[in-house]
Amino acid sequence: MKRLKTWHLFALVIVLFTASFYYINIKYDRFYRVKGINNENRQLIEKYLTSSEQDYLVENQIPIAKFIKYIKYKDFKLKNYQYYNLLQDTDRYSSKKTVIQTGNAIVDALSSRYDSNFYKLAQTIIENDLEYGLIHSKDFKDENIIYYGLMRPLYSAKDISYITDTATYLDDLALRNVYDDDALSFFTAVCAEYKKNSLKTLMQESNDTNVELITRPAGTDLYLNSNKYIGSYVPESLVLLQDVSRLKYGMYLRYDAYHALLKLNAAIKKQSSCLVVYQAYTSYKQLAEGARGHDEFQLGLSVKFTVNNEDYKYFDKTQESQWLVKNAYKYGFVLRYPKDKVKVTKHAYDAHIYRYVGTRLAEKMHEDNLALEEIHKQMDEVNKS
Prior knowledge:
Helix content is 47%, strand content 9%. The protein is built from 16 helices and 8 strands. Helix 4 (81-89) packs parallel to helix 6 (119-127). The chain has helices at residues 2-28, 39-48, 51-60, 81-89, 96-111, 119-127, 131-136, 145-151, 161-175, 180-193, 196-203, 255-268, 319-327, 342-345, 359-368, 372-384, and strands spanning 212-213, 228-229, 238-240, 252-254, 275-279, 302-307, 333-337, 350-356. The mean pLDDT is 93. It is α+β, with helices and mostly antiparallel strands and 385 residues long. It starts with a helix and ends with a helix.
């Protein structure tokens, strides 16, 4: 009985000591539980934080390192420290003053729409570099953020027209009954392939539902005609033609087509040095008005050949043309508009025009005597089955 009372007394002393210690620390050092506190930053806290902010700091036990670097700035607000850190982590801001002003503006913009719990939304906005648009555009819509994130890299730093352009393009797609996942797939594809202006040109044809808007113009198997449109698309990897005979100096092809052309040219030179590149990549502006966005020379994959000292219209009678018909496929090129495929291509026979499609596809087209249109028809049938 005496041992039990002694144990109880001992326990009571410990409890009283702990409670007294806790009370003393709360009374004389309310910041003792804040991680990273020391005499130096305690002085900063007491100098720069309001009493309500000090209470918020203690109640939420915010680590000192999370906010102390901002504390001396005039517009600093403790409750916004998380937004400052999100902005700082992007490395897009050169000054903490701008970080603080931007963070405060984000919170003001979102708090006008939501009572609370918008941190994750803000995180998505900042990760996608959309904060300037949120702050400066009254047309910013939260439901379009996923589209803004795709569009934003196409625009300069303070160009917020991607917000209204996104709304316009979504309306354009609605005319084609393209919504939700299909609309997202469209945006994902075109934003990866097109620049701001070429995409705008592409979407100008969106009201004509008879015209297919090409979302992936970089494919080597793509074919174009009056019903397929790429706007003012410019291939990414255009290179200047060198080490091949050409009509003029400033001629270009896509990188892969150019290096295949070099191999073809080296091979034909063993028999003739008269082959000349008459036409290569042709820009949207250089094409005739009706051909713009519909002509395969805009892809940077097509080459028009001729022969020195021979009449252009008799090219198909030359040994160079006959060599190309038999051998071009080995280097990834095919005669684009053969005489026996006029009904398929809807294009007049032209012995001059060769199209780079890659060696694998070129070999199949050569062996099976297929035009690009027929290849796509086969692919469509496979996809349907």
